[in-house]
Design goal:
Helices cover 65% and strands 0% of the residues. The protein is an all-alpha fold. The chain has one domain: Arc Repressor Mutant, subunit A (Orthogonal Bundle), CATH 1.10.10.1410. The longest helix has 29 residues.
């Protein structure tokens, strides 16, 4: 995670995200840099618009609301259950889309 934070710090500072700069940031933070991980991160970020990725990742994801032992309504219960399932499916697809970002950062 430190490698991603270092890249984000460099981006926020307007510095180029390259192997040398990442190594300097990591060393300044007291982390022993791993050359292979640095190279992999730089290669993964090549051509990526970091601002766009941050914007997409910052989208609020609604947390499922837990209902504690609520009695089932006599009418319309099936409709409500179906709507809840649809909402959960939408949340899962958003989470899956954002999970792909994790592969970029190791």
């Amino acid at each position: 995670m430190e490698y991603v934070y270092a890249a984000l710090l460099l981006h926020a500072a307007g510095k180029e995200i390259n192997e040398e700069n990442l190594k300097k940031v990591l060393e300044a933070a007291g982390v022993s840099p791993d050359e292979a991980r640095i190279k992999a991160l730089v290669a993964a970020l090549e051509g990526v618009n970091i601002d766009e990725v941050i914007e997409k990742a910052a989208m609020p994801v609604a947390a499922p609301v837990a209902v504690a032992a609520a009695p089932a309504p006599a009418e319309g219960g099936a409709e409500e259950a179906q709507e809840e399932e649809e909402e959960e499916e939408e949340e899962v697809s958003e989470e899956e889309a954002l999970a792909g970002l994790g592969a970029l950062f190791g």
